[in-house]
Design a protein that fits this description.
By secondary structure, the protein is an alpha/beta fold. It is 38% helix and 16% strand. Helix 14 crosses helix 15.
Length: 518
């Protein structure tokens, strides 16, 4: 496809202006169908033949990505290579550029979907290269890489994510394993067992081998890190965990281990924490030297990433430390920033992962305790994957959730007669429905009076509403209402938000804040 030559873009009447705007350099064939999504390969063949399009006229045909069915039919009938373009005309420049560079389009999948698949495949290729045994053996000979359990980490590997199971002893073994499974499926590389501050739970620590065994039985050979400020607990865990967090000046002499240990610039026993970057760096460097003299084999400094209003100074500390110590493997607790800021976590995790990439912070610790931090592990994983490339932009995959990369330019001409919408009184029906979300599915209870008639569950609103219509006779107004609620429930599931029937998903800034002109 490197020399695609003359390209014909097929579209519908409504999309013609956009296709001509974004498909410059190509000819445009406008079918008599208004919406391109209503086209089929058979219809396109009929229209092109009627227009007299011949095999010698074009080197390639692109049909809309929204067309259902295979473009092979068109190619067979006309003798012109035919492929699916993007679903949006605004993605035509990227598609045409990819064609010139030899990108292979599909006859079944839209071009923009292929870009996403291709980008994620490139991510997996990078990760697979760093999983190669010879690559790992060679990399571990360099001072800026370490081995944590069976997992290599450092400059020559993607940033590793630690998912912290907070207050694990309170959860118990089963809930801890359940949370660990969740983190690993979401993209975590290491399971961090967080102990309960101010308590001593030595019995729970003896269960760590069982946790590891249960993870292994389900295909997860992930390292386990241990996070506690209690010296007795850390001593007990030395035989069980692969990585130890929170070693500081107060317990460093009591916890000498050959396993990797994270050093933090504090003395928890004395309540000491140097706030100024230069003091923090000096203190941590002395602590690191002391640890190595004591017999620690692998130390991983953590300058402590503070939340706002001290975020800038802690990032400064990380940067200055990295300049002085280019070979150290570093850890940062990004979850501390996300948890203590009432803002959506997606952008915050993306920015923190970008900072970590720039400063070569190799281990990122996070958790999902509060509702606002839910999804942080997956967001961090996507951000780390994006940062495997030089510029985390135009990759084919992104972290845009509520906002979009480009604004849509779709607009339809109104009819001559325009009617203002007015709400009518609602007729109370004896049949009513209660909608909720649970375990990744939408659930609907059908009631008549106080009687619960039926429960319907599924993941797609269309399937649920079809099932309801199959079993019950409801008014058009009631059907519209259910459709709206089911779509909102589906949106809540996608965004991992709570859903309450008839309550707006987005309040606060988007829903209730009115900006006054001054």
């Amino acid at each position: 496809m490197e020399n695609a030559g003359r390209i014909l873009l097929v579209t519908g009447r409504l999309a013609e202006p956009l296709v001509r705007k974004y498909g410059k350099g190509c000819d445009v064939f406008v079918t008599p169908v208004s919406v391109a999504a209503f086209l089929t390969p058979e219809l396109i063949v009929r229209y092109l033949k009627k227009a007299g399009i011949r095999s010698e006229d074009y080197d390639l045909i692109l049909i809309p990505g929204l067309v259902r069915g295979s473009a092979q039919i068109i190619e067979d009938e006309l003798g012109i290579p035919t492929f699916k373009g993007p679903r949006s005309a605004m993605d035509l420049p990227q598609t045409l550029k990819a064609l010139r560079e030899g990108f292979k389009l599909s006859k079944e999948k839209p071009a923009d979907e292929l870009f996403s698949i291709d980008a994620l495949k490139r991510v997996e290729d990078i990760r697979n290269r760093t999983r190669n045994r010879r690559y790992i053996e060679k990399a571990l000979k360099k001072p800026w890489n370490v081995l944590i359990g069976n997992l290599p980490a450092g400059r020559d590997f993607p940033a590793r994510i630690l998912g912290e199971v907070v207050d694990a002893p309170k959860l118990g073994i089963e809930k801890t394993v359940e949370k660990a499974f969740y983190y690993l499926r979401e993209g975590a590389d290491i399971v961090d067992i967080g102990m309960v501050a101010g308590e001593r739970n030595l019995g729970f620590i003896e269960e760590i081998p069982e946790i590891r065994e249960m993870l292994g039985e389900n295909g997860f050979e992930a390292p386990i890190s241990f996070d506690s400020l209690n010296t007795a607990e850390i001593e007990k865990a030395l035989d069980y965990a692969d990585l130890f967090l929170s070693v500081d000046a107060g317990n460093i002499e009591e916890l000498v281990t050959k396993k990797p240990a994270v050093l933090i610039p504090t003395n928890q026993k004395e309540g000491f924490f140097p706030t100024k970057p230069a003091e923090r760096i000096g203190f941590l460097e002395r602590l690191k030297e002391m640890a190595l003299d004591l017999g620690y084999r692998t130390v991983i400094p953590d300058l402590i990433l503070e939340h706002v209003p001290h975020l800038a100074r802690s990032i400064t500390a990380f940067q200055l430390y990295r300049e002085k110590n280019p070979d150290d493997v570093l850890l940062a607790g990004v979850g501390n920033v996300v948890e203590l800021y009432d803002a959506d976590s997606v952008g915050m995790n993306a920015l923190l992962a970008g900072i970590a990439k720039e400063l070569s912070i190799n281990l990122l610790l996070t958790t999902e305790v509060s509702a606002k931090s839910r999804g942080s592990v997956r967001e961090l994983r996507r951000a780390v994957d994006m940062n495997l490339f030089d510029m985390p932009k135009d990759l084919g995959f992104d972290l845009l959730v509520l906002k979009e990369k480009r604004a849509s330019e779709w607009r339809f001409e109104p009819a001559e007669k325009i009617i203002k919408a007015e709400e009518r009184p609602i007729q109370i029906e004896p049949l009513y429905f209660r909608v909720w979300v649970e375990n990744g599915k939408i659930w609907v209870n059908a009631h008549r009076g106080t009687e619960l008639l039926l429960t319907i569950t599924g993941e797609e609103p269309n399937a649920i509403i079809d099932t309801i219509l199959e079993h019950f006779g409801i008014s058009p107004r009631h059907a519209f209402y259910l459709g709206r609620e089911l779509e909102r429930a589906k949106t809540a599931l996608k965004l991992r938000r709570s859903y309450v029937q008839e309550v707006e998903l987005f309040g606060g800034f988007y829903g209730n804040t009115k900006i006054e002109k001054v």
